[in-house]
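Table S7 (text form). Paired inputs.
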Amino acid sequence: MSKSYAAFLFDMDGTLITSVASAERVWTNWAKKHGIDVATYLPSIHGVRSVDSIRGLDRPDLDVEKEAAAIEAAEIADTADVSEIPGAAAFLASLPPKSWAIVTSASLALARARLSAAGFALPEVIITAEDVKRGKPDPQGYKLAAERLGVDPAHCLVFEDAPAGIAAGEAAGADVAVITATHTHPVAGGQLRMPDYRGVTLKIGADGRLSLVG
């Protein structure tokens, strides 16, 4: 944790906020409607774009864009129990505004709804599903966020929770901190593990680089 970075890049769901219950309610209803085995399918939805998740089913009878739009609308409407990962808001508030970004597989509309429900404002830099041609585990989103912050991805620390996002951060050349607050089983990858942001403080060097203490 003594290593310093030019910027921090955060996933959203499961990393800054918890929306697992909301997402799984919506996707469970959708999967049942289309005769998809919920227990097998549900674990695969986390950390990837809706269109990629649906496309991966290889169901020619499903209009991918139409189904993704319907799921998005349902998720935007279901934010009652979306909440902050403990300590996340205070940790973000300690960061210089131009030193961090969010990289999410959600659309901008869904990101705005969920962040607002958890009491967060949109950051200066946010990369959403609309900004990339290839979603996580492809590193495009993290590379784009680093570019918009004017830094090299290799000089960034990515905060993630899901396998697809961890793989994306590592493929971008960044170090990865895995947030385990919502985990129900071990997840591979990353350089360090953090249950949440409580007890972790930020150190800003004279050169503006960021490091974690605690």
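Next pair, protein 2 of 2.
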Amino acid sequence: MKPRTAVDTEQPEELLFFRRWIANPLKVGALLPSSPALARVVARNVEMGPDDVVIEVGAGTGSITKGLLASGAIPPERLFVIEIDTDMCTYLRKQLPHVQVIHGDAGRLADIVPSRWHGKVSTVVSGIPMITLPFDAQQRLIRSWFSIMKPGGKMLQYTYSLVSPIPEDKLDLRGRRCGMAFLNVPPASVFAYRKAAEPA
């Protein structure tokens, strides 16, 4: 018999997601995993050069991760997934054995992502519910992400808000909504952000 603290990696994705939502709704942010429709919108907006890596933060059960891989544009070994929840992390490692899954704080990317990739991150994909976070928490996360991006790198944020979930001006960013997934439950928007000082 499995110990009660062990995560069952064979349980349905929706059940695991719901259990983690019950445990911490502000961190998980939604009742259901993201849909394939949303994953496709995110994947279309990822930038990936031959020497680049992509980082996904707040991956949950990996719905978006699977969509990124299905796009064929990102080799699994060039995709880093950062997840702070222990159960989710165990599940991701079981489901996506070829992806670089890191258990850790997304606000400490410079410490937890191997240094050889610093300056080679083209895109950070965020599933963290930024709209629920106070400004100082948003600022800590975003500074961490841009600190290891290559020049011109961008952040993709998917959200259930119709407006930008972060105050762009205060964070010295410029952003735009680059897509919507109407078939997601609930419908979701994807916003792309870059440093305001960098060219479009």
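Residues 27 and 109 are 18 Å apart (CA to CA).
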